[in-house]
Amino acid sequence: MNSIKTYYLIIFITVIISLLSAVYIEYVLNVKPCTLCLYQRFPYIISIFLCFFGYNYPKNLSWLLIIIITFVISTLISGYHVGIENNIFKEFSGCTGNNLNIINKTELLESLNNSMPNCKTVTFKILGLSLATINFIISIVISVTSINYFINEKNR
């Protein structure tokens, strides 16, 4: 198997493990994700399809280029989330979850049961790192190694 196909397979496995871990933490450990946590899953989902096409059409480097763009975007989203967690950036309105316009008691209770945590609060850590921080690291590693593979494959 050539190295670029192996690389697509490594990204695919990394992405699947990351997504399954997020789903496990959310549904089995019952840790609700914030809005940005959910947004951070989109580049991973997109990369599954990109890895499939890249693996099956390894001579077409456009798949690798799109993976680079996808994980640079993932780096920006997760970096912004880490910045919010560490008081570097202010939360955007979709993160706060405050809804003070509810008058009815039933609606208020339902809203509290269905509310998402704000993006500033770290509700789960692995080895002392928030999930946003872990995603930030993974996204940077995949971005940098993908750029390296793209340059090497283009020069062949």
Q: For the record, give the distance between the C-alpha atoms at the N and C termini, rounded to a whole number.
A: 17 Å
Q: Major sheet, described briefly?
A: 2 strands, antiparallel
CATH architecture: Up-down Bundle
Name given to the CATH homologous superfamily: DsbB-like
Structural class: mainly alpha
Helix content: 55-70%
Strand order of the largest sheet: 1-2
Question: Secondary-structure element sequence?
Answer: HHHHHHEEH
Stretches with pLDDT under 50, minimum 5 residues: none
Count of alpha/pi helices:
7
* Average pLDDT: 89
Net shape:
elongated
List the domain count as a whole number. Answer: 1
What do you see in this structure?
This protein has helices at residues 3-28, 35-39, 41-56, 62-85, 93-96, 105-114, 131-154; strands at 125-126, 129-130. With 156 residues, the chain is mainly alpha-helical. It has one domain: DsbB-like (Bromodomain-like). A hairpin with a 2-residue loop joins strand 1 and strand 2 (129-130). Helix 1 (3-28) packs antiparallel against helix 7. The protein is elongated, with a radius of gyration of 18 Å.
